[in-house]
Write a structure and sequence with these properties.
The chain is of the alpha+beta class and about 400 residues long. It contains nine helices and eleven strands. The structure holds protoporphyrin IX containing FE. The site of protoporphyrin IX containing FE has 26 residues, from strand 7, helix 7, strand 10 and helix 8. It is an enzyme of class 1 (oxidoreductase).
């Protein structure tokens, strides 16, 4: 069930000169090869059945920017279509290592660095553009949960962009180009930036750690699993006026602050009981010594003392598909750190992004977690949004064309 691997390596054709260096460095202490020289050259295809940034590259990139936009007043379907056309052209160029129209040279010298740009539509987009009748039925608002502390100004939005890249300049460049391309049509409503581990930071590719120090991503659905596509992507066969969502997905975005002070007050054993996995290896607490993060968890195993090995309120037990009528999702987020709050605690946590064929999967699991998950005491959900993310554009097409043309 593990989602593990390195960024896909597409052809290096069309890269900016000097981006591809040969040879591989060697890890200073382990002697393992660290192929960091391929980081710049790696290009993720823009066109395809699904938009990039959901399952390509397989692992979320080292940096991520999320930006929601609201349409300017007086903007309708025609202007929105022109914007999506401009955005797609710029994203296609940049992700393939070419300069977009009117480039500002910020990312000059760099290859595409696994840049992906993913576009989504919020619920309000449809009424503002006269397309309410084509809004997907699944695009329901995420309800407020009892322990939520949601800031509406940093939630929702008409349009959404997710930028991911393995280089900070490449990521900023893409966001900046796209924001400028929106001028006059849409304004930034909120923007958040996050990060994961840089490629080459570990001797071999590993599941990332979050800011609580846990290995995070182990239980994600396996791309080779038979239910994977059905879990993540919308299927053909719905009503004709929603066919534009074929091959698409729904992104639920939650900014979740971690209460790192109270978390640090727990012993390591207590921290492991909150999640249900060991911190060092990520192995489930139901597994014997020497197990790894891929060892399947056994929810019905008891300790010699007679208590559940994975406690009743452990995060992985409460969140697992087995506890939620099979509801499953792909978690692919970014950590964030935005300085310090007035009380001296870090404003840091997880830009939690899940991908699912129906946002109902997230709502079902979060409803359960909010009441029963031990982790709830150490986190605060501070913003919330859900976006319909259409399928990928075919060559010559722009993202969302089947909705907007
Ligand atoms: C598993 C951390 C929020 C759903 C995990 C794991 C960790 C973790 C460490 C175990 C390793 C893994 O499978 O990835 C966190 C943290 C959160 C958070 C730090 C907040 C800051 C959420 C939320 C949801 C969620 C809001 C869904 C509504 C899941 C699921 C699993 C999981 C489905 C896999 C369970 C399984 O093994 O089947 N999480 N999580 N998590 N989490 Fe979270």
């Amino acid at each position: 069930r593990r989602l593990l691997g390195t960024a896909g390596t597409a052809g290096a054709a069309g890269l900016m000169a000097g981006a591809v260096a040969g040879g591989a460095a060697t890890h200073a202490t382990t002697g393992h090869p660290t192929p960091v020289t391929s980081v710049g050259a790696t290009a993720v295809p823009f066109h395809g059945a699904h938009q990039a940034g959901i399952i390509t590259p397989l692992r979320a990139q080292a940096i991520g920017h999320l930006a929601a936009f609201d349409l300017a007043s007086g903007t309708g379907r025609k202007e929105a279509a022109a914007l999506l056309r401009r955005w797609s052209a710029a994203a296609e160029a940049m992700t393939q290592g070419r300069a977009p129209a009117g480039d500002d040279q910020i990312a000059l010298d760099a290859g595409p660095c696994s840049l992906t740009v993913t576009f989504g539509f919020g619920r309000t987009f449809f009424s503002r553009t006269g397309l309410a009748h084509r809004a997907p039925a699944a695009l329901v608002p995420v309800p407020r949960f009892p322990s939520d502390a949601i800031d509406p100004k940093r939630s929702d939005g008409d349009l959404w962009i997710q930028v991911g890249a393995d280089d900070p300049l490449v990521g900023f460049h893409a966001l900046h180009v796209l924001q400028k391309a929106a001028a006059g049509t849409a304004e930034v409503r909120w923007q958040m930036s996050g990060f994961n581990r840089a490629p080459g930071a570990t001797a071999r590719p590993k599941t990332v750690r979050n800011l609580m120090g846990q290995i995070d991503g182990t239980g994600n659905p396996e791309p080779t699993g038979k239910d994977f596509a059905r879990t993540i992507f919308t299927r053909r066969g719905g009503p004709a006026d929603q066919a534009w969502m074929n091959g698409g997905s729904y992104a639920v975005v939650r900014r979740i602050r971690m209460l790192l002070g109270p978390w640090a007050d727990l012993t390591r054993t207590q921290q492991e009981e909150v999640i249900g996995r060991r911190k060092d290896t990520g192995a489930p607490l139901s597994a014997p010594a020497g197990a790894s993060e891929t060892t399947p968890m056994e929810l019905n195993r008891f300790t010699r003392g007679g208590s559940l090995a994975i406690p009743a309120d452990a995060h992985i037990r409460v969140a697992a598909p087995e506890s939620n009528d099979g509801a499953a999702m792909l978690r692919r987020g970014f950590s964030y750190h935005d300085g310090y709050r007035a009380d001296g605690t870090p404003d840091a946590g997880l830009l939690f992004i899940t991908w699912q064929a129906d946002p109902e999967a997230f709502i079902k699991v979060q409803t359960k977690l909010d009441g029963a998950d031990h982790l709830t005491r150490f986190i605060r959900h501070e913003s919330s949004a859900v976006f319909a993310v259409p399928g990928g554009a075919a060559p010559g097409e722009y993202v969302g064309q089947r909705l907007l043309e």
